[in-house]
Amino acid sequence: MNRLIEVFLVVFFAPIWVVLLLVIASLVFFSDGRPIIFKDLRAGLKGKEFALYKFRTMRPGQEDDSKRITKLGKFLRKTSLDELPELINVLKGDMSLVGPRPLPMRYISRYTEREFQRHNVKPGITGLAQVNGRNQLSWEEKFEFDLEYVSKRSFLLDVKILFKTIQVVFLARGINEKADTTMSEFRARS
pLDDT digit string (tens) for 102-117? Predict the structure, then answer.
């Protein structure tokens, strides 16, 4: 999607998402304390590192993710509201509304040459993998959807993905991989 159109959409809908941002930030603060925002280094366009912003949904600690997630965090993840701060990443130019999801920097060395092509476009808040199964997909399936998006991307495809995202989020489809709270770690294949 054209950058000007993305910025226009984000700014146009700012009265809605900024209010939501403030309400959720207050809820996170009063229920779970600080930090409110979770910042993680992710791989962007051409594999360049950037800081991704999300609402914090877990308590700090070394225990299992399913035990660290907060009650509010479960709700935020189920509704995808934890990803609302990524609109700031879109305004900064680190991300697009639509594209492959940005993954941790530590995965960069694990990609095959073909898989790395997912970085030929900016990462997105939503993408083909997110509207076709999300965390219920295997890593191989996710990467296939990412590569399909890279090869077929167009304004019409982006609009279609955005509308399908609204359906997927409303129905809370594909949030968790089986019984796990988060997607399993991506491992390099030998």
Answer: 999 999 999 999 999 9
